[in-house]
Specification:
Elements (H helix, E strand, L loop, with lengths): L3 E2 L7 H4 L20 E8 L1 H7 L7 E8 L3 E6 L7 E6 L6 E11 L9 H21 L4 E13 L2 E12 L3 E10 L6 E10 L8 H6 L1 H7 L2 E2 L1
Antiparallel strand pairs: 1-6, 2-3, 3-11, 4-5, 5-6, 6-10, 7-8, 8-9, 9-10
Length: about 220
Protein backbone atom coordinates (compact mmCIF):
# COMPACT_ATOMS: atom_id res chain seq x y z
CA UNK A 1 0.00 0.00 0.00
CA UNK A 2 1.51 3.32 -1.06
CA UNK A 3 1.19 6.76 0.44
CA UNK A 4 1.62 9.71 -1.88
CA UNK A 5 3.02 12.97 -0.55
CA UNK A 6 2.17 15.72 -2.98
CA UNK A 7 5.31 17.78 -2.49
CA UNK A 8 7.91 15.26 -1.33
CA UNK A 9 10.47 16.56 -3.83
CA UNK A 10 9.91 20.17 -2.80
CA UNK A 11 10.28 19.80 0.95
CA UNK A 12 13.90 20.93 1.15
CA UNK A 13 12.72 24.44 1.99
CA UNK A 14 10.51 23.42 4.92
CA UNK A 15 12.99 23.89 7.73
CA UNK A 16 15.15 26.55 6.13
CA UNK A 17 12.16 28.88 6.20
CA UNK A 18 12.52 28.90 9.98
CA UNK A 19 15.62 31.03 9.64
CA UNK A 20 15.11 34.70 10.44
CA UNK A 21 16.97 37.67 11.80
CA UNK A 22 17.51 36.90 15.46
CA UNK A 23 18.61 39.27 18.16
CA UNK A 24 19.58 38.18 21.64
CA UNK A 25 18.97 41.63 23.05
CA UNK A 26 15.26 41.16 23.68
CA UNK A 27 13.89 38.90 26.40
CA UNK A 28 10.79 37.07 25.24
CA UNK A 29 8.90 34.06 26.54
CA UNK A 30 5.68 33.11 24.77
CA UNK A 31 4.26 31.49 27.88
CA UNK A 32 4.72 34.64 29.97
CA UNK A 33 2.98 37.04 27.60
CA UNK A 34 0.14 39.09 28.99
CA UNK A 35 -2.67 40.61 26.97
CA UNK A 36 -5.50 39.58 24.73
CA UNK A 37 -5.26 36.23 22.96
CA UNK A 38 -7.90 35.09 20.48
CA UNK A 39 -8.21 32.90 17.40
CA UNK A 40 -8.42 33.85 13.75
CA UNK A 41 -10.44 31.45 11.62
CA UNK A 42 -9.00 30.44 8.24
CA UNK A 43 -11.40 28.55 5.95
CA UNK A 44 -10.11 26.69 2.90
CA UNK A 45 -12.93 25.57 0.59
CA UNK A 46 -14.42 26.20 -2.84
CA UNK A 47 -14.78 29.91 -2.06
CA UNK A 48 -11.04 30.06 -1.31
CA UNK A 49 -10.33 28.39 -4.64
CA UNK A 50 -12.55 30.85 -6.51
CA UNK A 51 -10.94 33.85 -4.84
CA UNK A 52 -7.29 32.84 -5.02
CA UNK A 53 -7.19 30.18 -7.73
CA UNK A 54 -5.64 27.63 -5.37
CA UNK A 55 -7.14 24.12 -5.52
CA UNK A 56 -8.20 22.72 -2.13
CA UNK A 57 -8.03 18.89 -2.24
CA UNK A 58 -10.18 18.59 0.89
CA UNK A 59 -11.97 21.52 2.58
CA UNK A 60 -10.64 22.31 6.05
CA UNK A 61 -10.52 25.00 8.70
CA UNK A 62 -7.73 26.26 10.96
CA UNK A 63 -7.96 28.31 14.13
CA UNK A 64 -4.79 30.40 14.37
CA UNK A 65 -3.87 32.11 17.67
CA UNK A 66 -3.81 35.90 17.53
CA UNK A 67 -1.55 36.88 20.41
CA UNK A 68 -0.52 40.39 21.48
CA UNK A 69 3.19 41.05 20.86
CA UNK A 70 3.36 38.35 18.17
CA UNK A 71 2.95 39.14 14.47
CA UNK A 72 1.44 36.59 12.10
CA UNK A 73 2.74 36.37 8.55
CA UNK A 74 0.51 34.26 6.29
CA UNK A 75 1.92 32.94 3.01
CA UNK A 76 -0.34 30.98 0.67
CA UNK A 77 1.50 28.54 -1.62
CA UNK A 78 4.97 29.45 -0.30
CA UNK A 79 8.16 28.60 -2.12
CA UNK A 80 8.97 24.95 -1.55
CA UNK A 81 5.60 23.50 -2.47
CA UNK A 82 3.56 23.64 0.74
CA UNK A 83 -0.13 24.55 0.65
CA UNK A 84 0.22 27.24 3.33
CA UNK A 85 2.84 28.66 5.71
CA UNK A 86 2.12 30.67 8.85
CA UNK A 87 5.04 32.35 10.60
CA UNK A 88 4.97 33.93 14.06
CA UNK A 89 7.55 36.62 14.86
CA UNK A 90 8.15 39.24 17.52
CA UNK A 91 8.06 42.95 16.73
CA UNK A 92 11.24 45.00 16.89
CA UNK A 93 13.84 43.72 16.73
CA UNK A 94 12.18 40.94 14.77
CA UNK A 95 12.79 37.43 16.05
CA UNK A 96 11.53 34.12 14.72
CA UNK A 97 9.18 32.49 17.25
CA UNK A 98 7.48 29.59 15.43
CA UNK A 99 6.11 28.58 12.08
CA UNK A 100 3.82 25.94 10.70
CA UNK A 101 3.28 24.70 7.18
CA UNK A 102 0.32 22.74 5.86
CA UNK A 103 1.19 20.15 3.22
CA UNK A 104 -1.12 18.02 1.11
CA UNK A 105 -0.84 14.24 1.25
CA UNK A 106 -2.84 11.22 0.11
CA UNK A 107 -3.35 8.55 2.78
CA UNK A 108 -5.24 5.47 1.50
CA UNK A 109 -8.49 4.61 3.26
CA UNK A 110 -7.26 1.02 3.91
CA UNK A 111 -10.80 -0.29 3.66
CA UNK A 112 -9.60 -3.84 3.03
CA UNK A 113 -7.63 -3.92 6.29
CA UNK A 114 -8.98 -5.66 9.37
CA UNK A 115 -8.72 -2.34 11.27
CA UNK A 116 -8.70 0.51 8.72
CA UNK A 117 -8.13 3.26 11.27
CA UNK A 118 -5.17 1.50 12.89
CA UNK A 119 -3.69 0.80 9.46
CA UNK A 120 -4.03 4.44 8.39
CA UNK A 121 -2.39 5.60 11.62
CA UNK A 122 0.52 3.22 11.05
CA UNK A 123 0.90 4.41 7.48
CA UNK A 124 0.88 7.98 8.76
CA UNK A 125 3.57 7.23 11.35
CA UNK A 126 5.75 5.60 8.69
CA UNK A 127 5.29 8.58 6.40
CA UNK A 128 6.35 11.09 9.06
CA UNK A 129 9.35 9.11 10.26
CA UNK A 130 10.72 7.72 7.03
CA UNK A 131 9.98 10.43 4.48
CA UNK A 132 9.10 13.74 6.09
CA UNK A 133 11.48 13.92 9.06
CA UNK A 134 14.70 13.35 7.04
CA UNK A 135 13.83 16.17 4.66
CA UNK A 136 12.59 18.54 7.39
CA UNK A 137 15.93 18.40 9.23
CA UNK A 138 18.16 18.25 6.18
CA UNK A 139 21.16 20.56 6.59
CA UNK A 140 20.72 21.03 10.33
CA UNK A 141 22.70 19.64 13.24
CA UNK A 142 22.01 17.08 15.99
CA UNK A 143 18.64 16.01 14.59
CA UNK A 144 16.79 13.30 16.49
CA UNK A 145 13.30 11.90 16.93
CA UNK A 146 11.98 12.21 20.49
CA UNK A 147 8.54 10.61 20.19
CA UNK A 148 5.95 9.31 17.75
CA UNK A 149 2.45 9.23 19.20
CA UNK A 150 -1.22 9.14 18.33
CA UNK A 151 -3.07 12.37 19.10
CA UNK A 152 -6.62 13.63 18.78
CA UNK A 153 -7.68 16.52 16.58
CA UNK A 154 -11.30 17.61 16.72
CA UNK A 155 -12.69 14.15 17.41
CA UNK A 156 -10.43 12.31 14.96
CA UNK A 157 -7.16 10.45 15.44
CA UNK A 158 -3.86 11.47 13.90
CA UNK A 159 -0.16 10.89 14.44
CA UNK A 160 2.52 13.34 15.46
CA UNK A 161 6.28 13.10 15.54
CA UNK A 162 8.24 15.31 17.91
CA UNK A 163 11.92 15.87 17.29
CA UNK A 164 14.66 18.41 17.73
CA UNK A 165 17.59 19.86 15.88
CA UNK A 166 19.96 22.83 16.01
CA UNK A 167 19.66 25.68 13.51
CA UNK A 168 23.04 27.47 13.34
CA UNK A 169 21.27 30.80 12.78
CA UNK A 170 18.78 30.46 15.63
CA UNK A 171 19.82 27.76 18.07
CA UNK A 172 17.96 24.75 19.52
CA UNK A 173 14.69 24.04 17.72
CA UNK A 174 11.77 21.74 18.38
CA UNK A 175 10.15 20.09 15.37
CA UNK A 176 6.58 18.77 15.37
CA UNK A 177 5.21 16.90 12.39
CA UNK A 178 1.53 15.93 12.31
CA UNK A 179 -0.49 13.70 10.01
CA UNK A 180 -4.26 14.24 9.87
CA UNK A 181 -5.89 11.32 8.03
CA UNK A 182 -9.10 12.60 6.49
CA UNK A 183 -11.98 10.40 7.72
CA UNK A 184 -13.92 11.00 4.50
CA UNK A 185 -11.39 10.58 1.69
CA UNK A 186 -7.72 9.79 1.02
CA UNK A 187 -6.81 13.45 0.38
CA UNK A 188 -5.45 14.68 3.70
CA UNK A 189 -2.99 17.15 5.23
CA UNK A 190 0.26 17.11 7.16
CA UNK A 191 1.75 19.95 9.16
CA UNK A 192 5.38 20.85 9.80
CA UNK A 193 6.00 23.06 12.83
CA UNK A 194 9.31 24.61 13.92
CA UNK A 195 9.63 26.17 17.39
CA UNK A 196 12.43 28.42 18.66
CA UNK A 197 13.09 26.91 22.09
CA UNK A 198 14.85 30.05 23.32
CA UNK A 199 11.58 31.97 23.02
CA UNK A 200 9.07 29.14 23.49
CA UNK A 201 10.48 26.89 26.23
CA UNK A 202 8.53 23.70 25.50
CA UNK A 203 9.34 21.10 28.15
CA UNK A 204 6.42 18.64 28.00
CA UNK A 205 3.24 17.72 26.17
CA UNK A 206 1.18 20.43 27.85
CA UNK A 207 3.54 23.25 26.85
CA UNK A 208 3.78 21.83 23.34
CA UNK A 209 -0.02 21.97 23.03
CA UNK A 210 0.07 25.60 24.22
CA UNK A 211 2.57 26.67 21.57
CA UNK A 212 1.22 28.69 18.66
CA UNK A 213 2.01 26.05 16.07
CA UNK A 214 0.72 23.30 18.36
CA UNK A 215 -2.61 25.03 18.85
CA UNK A 216 -2.90 25.67 15.13
CA UNK A 217 -2.14 22.07 14.11
CA UNK A 218 -4.52 20.61 16.67
CA UNK A 219 -7.33 22.88 15.45
CA UNK A 220 -7.40 21.44 11.91
CA UNK A 221 -10.97 20.42 11.11
CA UNK A 222 -12.20 18.73 7.94
CA UNK A 223 -15.40 20.31 6.66
Amino acid sequence: MRIFLAVIMAMVGWSTCAQAQVSGSVEFNLFELEGVSSNRIFIFDEAYTRQYGVPVPAPFTLQVPDQDQVELIADGQPEGGAFLRLTFVTGEPRQFVENIQVVTATIPMAEEAEDPQATRLQLSANLLQERVFPVAVQGFQDAEVLAIEVFEFNGHMGVHLVGRYVDPAIGPMLLRLTAHPNPNQPESYLTVGNINLALVPVTDGDSLRQSLSGRTANSLTYD
